[in-house]
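pipeline: protein-struct stage 2 | run 1193 | Class I SAM-dependent methyltransferase
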Amino acid sequence: MEQLGSISIGTSQSVACNLCGAREAQHLFTKKGYDLVRCTACELAYIANPPDAEGIAAIYTTAADYHDALLDPASEQFARQSEIADQHLRMMKIFRPQLSGLRVLDIGCSSGIFLAKARDAGMDAHGAELSPETANFARFHFDLPVHRGDWRDGDYADSSFDVVTLFDVIEHLPDPLSELQAIRRLLKPGGLLLQSTPDIDGLFPRASEPLAKRLDYWPHPEPPHHLFQFSETTLSAMVHKAGFAVEGARHTSMDLAYNFGTMESWKRSPKMLAYAALFAPVAIIGEWLGKGDWLYLAATPS
């Protein structure tokens, strides 16, 4: 076993970098027993000791509290996700101003909130979702054509979509490069691949990283759900390697409560309150400067 240090991965389940294949990496942070490292060759950040396939599959069910609140239209999380879906549509319109008539596949569509709004905007909306509970909700509550399971089993024809979306999905995938390479066949010539993902190169993650080990607290990485932490540079490189040309990127910020908690959580954890007081202003300034911690990347098959 390799020794964990500044230039090598040191876990019993060490994995090669998904982007460049290198095995040398710098340790960044350990959270919930998972080691986040940064490839020294291409700077992609990833979990060096990820769960196995069975462990990953177990995460994405409501039995594990995954998106269970999104099955309740009266919940606060449902309302928040509705606002995020509006943001997704605004971002899409930057790259495809006329949405009406476009056929879209939302991979990882969860409970279908975005797809319902896409349909209302005149799009021919389709989805694929691994979680059986949220897929069923999308199918029966919103009456959407959602494939329950891996999109590869959805019998989608080559060159059959104008738009494919991966909203906060790419960071969850065990093999994102292969996924992007496979998705390419779904898009028509000139079609749009639109992704969103947390941005490790945002001002808040960059400013807070040096203190992460000292404080033993860094909300940006979220293992075991998030297996990768992308930046515009690394996601652009991966998209290019998968056979796409980048059309553009936009930066925004995650909801402050996601990173910094709420008044209720601050009462339970004074450390979280102190952390919020220190870094929440940095997160706000980051968005003003175009260095928010949430990235949208648009690409088209090359």
